[in-house]
């Protein structure tokens, strides 16, 4: 089981893994072994998700999902297939946890007295600088 949040755990049977060859360090070893891990999680059809969780994930991860509602994560940072698999699972848990997190409601605030004073002071300074650019007044 992969624990994503206190109220959500995903069984590993819902994850599809495939392993492909990865470039990078390793000499000729990388040309012969499939160490990069590609993980696919079907958000749209997962029985582990509640309807609310599914809707939230489909909305928040829309740009990362394919046309069938599946999330694909590829990890190829190390030469070890097991390490890359663990990295992909950790990334999946992190992505799902962030997408499921409920944002605190925004409370409207007003600028404080000091902020207003600074704003007025900079406006006055700017106005003085512009006045100095004017030609001298012939009448005055």
TrEMBL record:
Record-level GO BP terms: rescue of stalled ribosome
Segments of this protein annotated with the region Disordered: 105-140
Compositionally biased residues, Basic residues: 107-133
GO molecular function terms attached to this record: peptidyl-tRNA hydrolase activity; ribosome binding; translation release factor activity
Superkingdom as given in the UniProt entry: Bacteria
Domain Prokaryotic-type class I peptide chain release factors residue range list: 7-133
Pfam family name, one: RF-1
SUPFAM superfamilies linked to this entry: Release factor
Family: Belongs to the prokaryotic/mitochondrial release factor family.
Name this protein carries in UniProt: Class I peptide chain release factor
Native organism: Alkalidesulfovibrio alkalitolerans DSM 16529
């Amino acid at each position: 089981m992969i624990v994503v949040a206190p109220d959500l755990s995903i069984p590993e049977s819902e994850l599809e893994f495939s392993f492909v060859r990865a470039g990078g360090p390793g000499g000729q070893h990388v040309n012969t072994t499939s160490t990069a891990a590609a993980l696919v999680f079907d958000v749209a059809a997962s029985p582990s998700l509640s309807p609310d969780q599914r809707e939230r994930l489909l909305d928040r991860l829309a740009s990362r999902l394919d046309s069938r509602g599946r999330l694909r994560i590829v990890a190829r940072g190390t030469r070890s297939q097991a390490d890359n698999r663990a990295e992909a699972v950790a990334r999946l848990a992190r992505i799902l946890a962030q997408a499921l997190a409920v944002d605190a409601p925004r409370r409207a605030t007003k600028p404080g007295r000091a902020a207003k004073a600074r704003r007025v002071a900079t406006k006055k300074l700017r106005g003085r600088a512009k006045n100095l650019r004017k030609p001298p007044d012939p009448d005055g």
